[in-house]
Structures are given as structure tokens and as C-alpha cells.
């Protein structure tokens, strides 16, 4: 299980457990799964999608941002 934290300058958007996360990296879209290697990447305009623990897929449209993955914690700081 991954812990996903999504924040914007205005508010906290999501903080909870997810099965996977897909983000629009500046070098292309990539998926983050459990035990992903540590990474920091910039994000470009596109959709962030994540599957919550119940299996439901959620999506969020972003303009830009950054993602950090470390020890099964995925932190997204995004502009909407």
C-alpha cells in the first residue's frame, strides 16, 4: 500500500492510502507502485490518476508540480 499526499498552494487535496498513482512527468507519464525507487520529478500539465484502497479510480487535472517518492510515501505538490 502507498500513502499519497496531494497538496496545492491553496489546500490539501488528498491524504490517504492508494494502490497506485500515475503522474504526467515532464519526460512522460509514469506509474508509481508499492516499493518504487526513491525519485523526485517535475510534472507537466495533465491528469494525475490514483486508485484508492477500495479499487475506485480517481483523477485530478493539474497544470504543473512536483512529485517525490520515498519509502512508499508519494508526495505531490501541484498547481491546479
Automatic annotation (TrEMBL):
The main location class comes to membrane
Q: Which domain of life is it from?
A: Bacteria
Where in or outside the cell it occurs: the entry states: Endomembrane system
Q: Boundaries of each ATP synthase F1 complex delta/epsilon subunit N-terminal domain copy? A: 2-79
- CDD domains, A to Z: F1-ATPase_delta
Q: Which UniProt keywords apply?
A: ATP synthesis, CF(1), Ion transport, Membrane, Transport
Name the GO cellular-component terms: endomembrane system; proton-transporting ATP synthase complex
Membrane association type: Peripheral membrane protein
Q: Name one GO molecular function term.
A: proton-transporting ATP synthase activity, rotational mechanism
NCBIfam families for the chain: ATP_synt_epsi
Report quaternary structure and partners: F-type ATPases have 2 components, CF(1) - the catalytic core - and CF(0) - the membrane proton channel. CF(1) has five subunits: alpha(3), beta(3), gamma(1), delta(1), epsilon(1). CF(0) has three main subunits: a, b and c.
Q: What does this protein do?
A: Produces ATP from ADP in the presence of a proton gradient across the membrane.
Q: Which PANTHER family match?
A: ATP SYNTHASE DELTA/EPSILON CHAIN, ATP SYNTHASE EPSILON CHAIN, CHLOROPLASTIC
The Swiss-Prot or TrEMBL record describes its family as follows: Belongs to the ATPase epsilon chain family.
Name the record gives this protein: ATP synthase, delta/epsilon subunit, beta-sandwich domain protein
Q: Which organism is it from?
A: Hoylesella timonensis CRIS 5C-B1
Task: Tell me the classification of the organism that encodes this protein.
Answer: Bacteria, Pseudomonadati, Bacteroidota, Bacteroidia, Bacteroidales
